Amino acid sequence: MLARDSIVRRMDWVMIVAAIVLSGIGSLLVWSATRGRTAINHGDPQYFLIRHLMNLAIGIALSIGTIALGHRRARAIIPIIYGLAILLLLAVLSPLGSTVNGAHSWIVIGGGFSLQPSEFAKIAIILGMAMILSGRVDAGDQLTPDHRSVLQSLGLAVVPMGIIMMMPDLGSTMVMVVIVLGILLSSGSPKRWVFGLMAAGTTGAIAVWQLQLLNKYQIDRFAAFANPALDPSGVGYNTAQARIAIGSGGLLGKGLFHGSQTTGQFVPEQQTDFVFTVAGEELGFVGAVVIILLIGIILWRACRIARQATDLYGTVIAAGVVAWLSFQSFENIGMTLGIMPVAGIPLPFVSYGGSSMFAVWIGIGLLQSVRMQRPVSA
User: Fold this and answer.
1) How does DSSP assign 328-341, residue by residue?
2) Do the Cβ atoms of 336 and 242 come closer than 8 Å?
3) Is the pTM of this model over 0.85?
4) Distance between CA 48 and CA 199 in Å, rounded?
5) Which ranges in 75-215 belong to alpha helices (H)?
6) How many CA atoms, within 13 angstroms, populate the side-chain half-sphere of residue 281?
7) DSSP run (H or E) holding 322
8) Which residues are listed as membrane-spanning (predicted)?
9) Rounded Cα gap, residues 25 and 289, in angstroms
10) What confidence tens digit (pLDDT) does each residue in 177-226 have?
11) Secondary structure (3-state) at 2
């Protein structure tokens, strides 16, 4: 076991500081987006701020716990983690589940708190696939994962993805698909699997669209993405108002708490899915770039950890977290700019939401654990 001073010395403080600063900026943006929304803040301007800070504190505590456990020791309980994730997903489909913005993907706990199991399913997929793909490679039995290992890992990922599609939660499914592809690429699995999955995914998406298996609100979102001028007071309202908010910020923004689109409550779900619009309007281009740079720093350090990992298990875990955070960030920011369809997923470290905050900080803990296994000179 590493000594306490060795643990502190081996941690990636550049990543940790970037994540804390990003979360701090997110707290201010959430506060600005909700302090005047009496319909949801129960008359308390600090209602969402306090809960966001509580979520952040719990998330950091979970990160510390993950580091203390270590990704290698967690390997023994991955089946338990995976099983709990599946049970929580199934609970959403039971009477315990609640519908928010068309997606039946939540469990309401009470007291203003709710749980979105799909966030934890992302971690379960990363750990489960890493365990299967790296097992025989790290044992020295083979150089790269064989076809059997790839097939088993894909079977593990398909189960939670299938349940999430039944909710339906298309945004989380999209993120998981990217996670799976990122893991297969980083593990050294035969490239035919990657190309085959991409072809199958494209075929499946066309089939889902042609057979009209999507819910109406999901079809409307894609229609609004394809044609931004479509029904600006209806399905295109969110994206239209988001672009107006970001565009009105200019270079330096209107100042925190002074955005007219934000104070006027023109952008729906601004504390969650569209929190980046607050940054664009009130902090301007400079503030938005700072957020993107902080995300970039986290991803850069995570890629460095993946490259320097001492075993395939650590490499795959780190690569899975990179694929998760990078695509989710790109999708969230992209949908506010109109370059990606609205998928209803939060901006990591920034958006309001306990489940998302807990999950991303657990991801930071996994990255730190992988880093601590590298040689001191690396």
Assistant:
1) HHHHHHHHHHTSS-
2) yes
3) yes
4) 43
5) 78-92, 117-138, 147-165, 170-187, 191-210
6) 26
7) helix 312-337
8) 12-33, 53-70, 77-100, 170-186, 193-211, 283-300, 312-329, 349-367
9) 12
10) 999 999 999 999 888 888 888 887 777 666 665 655 566 556 666 655 65
11) coil
